[in-house]
Amino acid sequence: MVLSLSSQNVIQYLRDAGLCSSEDGASDKSELPKNSKKNFNLLVTLADNRNLLVKQESITNNDETPHEFFNEWLFGQLLGQFPVLGNISAIAPSVLHFDQENSILVRNYLSEYLELGQYYQKNDIFLPEIASAIGTTLAGLHRATFNRREYKDFMSTAPEGQFRYGFYNPAQGINSIGPDIFGVVPTDALKFYVLYQRYESLESAIADLAYNWQPCCLTHNDLTLNNILVHSRWEQLDNCLVRLIDWEACSWGDPAFDLGTLLASYLQIWLSSLVVDPTIELEESLHLAMTPLEVLQPSIVALIRSYLNAFPMILEYQHDFILRVIQFAGLALIHQIQDMITSRKYFNNSDICMLQVAKNLLTMPEQSVLTIFGISESTILKPVANLHKLPQPEKEQQLLRIYYEKTRLRGC
């Protein structure tokens, strides 16, 4: 029988697991900012002021044990197995205990760090130094594992009693819509699915992105601002300004997906601050945002430049890397809209604007580069090219792209 954790039995569980002694006094706090429908989270403070985060996955009604925590545990094992990765302080392992039978994970709680999303929201300051540290850290992970068979084989490990036939391709559009959607989605939110299916070029662009998915290194796969921590005294530190956490979705994947997902998180700050009114055109609404895109652009540029400077080899492997990052950002925005509909049960005019921006990123990435970064692709690459000899991409023939009617690719 699966043990169900609660504030009443969590201390005894930690003692049984050898994570604290019977002499240790401990207190628990169940109020955590990241409690979710998927996980039950408890913050436990031990007598020596150590903080432990205890997480348990929800058990499904069909008695199937979920395995989302297995990847995070596996990632910690990977860092211990390969010191090259373990030396990257920003991704240092913090997992102390994994109980597969009860779907429980225990890790150190980094009390001196703040969620970057909350930090930005509270301070309304977007300094390029933080974004640059993130880009360098992410590039270090991608570069160290790039096309390395030993890392890929390690990540192929499956939970006990399970099999892995391949790695999941996250470049997916919206699932096929059936009659059951009317029971879970409010009438107003159905407009999202109507608009999504109206644009054949959008579905075709997502299908192309999925087809051209290029798994070549270890990726986080859920790199939002809420999964990045910034040190509360980062201005006084020379290193370890940021930490990347929650590796539950990590696998062998496409590096452009990680960077695109992160870019989408920055864009959401801009898009969630729009002044929206039926009488205002989209372009005007985008310019009237409470947090203008121009305020975020220095950080966005610092992110991409620091990444490319630390991992210039990716431009030899993927000549269109920046364009694919832009497209993955658009796809991430679409998934964010769908998640908001699922959790908050609404779809408003702001979300319509976000969908339009996402569509532009996916179907017109070349034009979107200048809009999002504020500078051209060549200008982004110039400082990197001055330090590294980069290959010159071949010019494609200017041919009209043909989209077949209702092209769909739901998975690989």
Could you explain how this protein is built, in words?
By secondary structure, the chain is of the alpha+beta class. The chain folds into 2 domains: 23-108, Phosphorylase Kinase, domain 1 (2-Layer Sandwich); 113-387, Alpha-Beta Complex (Aminoglycoside 3'-phosphotransferase, Chain: A, domain 2). It is 44% helix and 11% strand. The protein is built from 16 helices and 10 strands. It has helices spanning 10-16, 68-81, 83-86, 116-123, 128-145, 149-155, 190-198, 200-211, 255-271, 282-287, 293-310, 314-317, 321-344, 349-363, 365-373, 377-387, and strands at 26-29, 39-46, 51-57, 95-99, 104-108, 113-115, 217-219, 228-231, 242-244, 251-253. Strands 1-2-3-5-4 form a 5-stranded antiparallel beta sheet, with helices on one face. Strands 6-8-9 form a 3-stranded antiparallel beta sheet. Strand 4 (95-99) and strand 5 form a beta hairpin. Helix 9 (255-271) packs across helix 13. The radius of gyration is 22 Å and the shape is globular. The relative contact order is 0.12. The model is unreliable at 61-65 and 402-412 (pLDDT under 50).
Q: How large is the count of helical segments?
A: 16
The main sheet comes to: 5 strands, antiparallel
Task: Note the beta-strand portion.
Answer: 5-15%
Helix fraction bin: 40-55%
- Which fold name fills CATH's third level, the topology of the largest domain? Aminoglycoside 3'-phosphotransferase, Chain: A, domain 2
Low-confidence stretches: 61-65, 402-412
User: What does the overall shape look like?
Assistant: globular
Summarize the helix and strand pattern as letters: HEEEHHEEEHHHHHEEEEHHHHHHHH
Distance between the ends: 36 Å
**Quantity of strands, as a count:** 10
Order the strands across the largest sheet as they lie in space.
1-2-3-5-4
Rg measurement, Å: 22 Å
The CATH homologous superfamily of the largest domain is called: Aminoglycoside phosphotransferase (APH), C-terminal lobe
Under the CATH scheme, which class of the largest domain? Alpha Beta
| Average pLDDT taken over every residue | 84
Number of domains: 2
**What's the CATH architecture of the largest domain?**
Alpha-Beta Complex
Structural class: alpha+beta
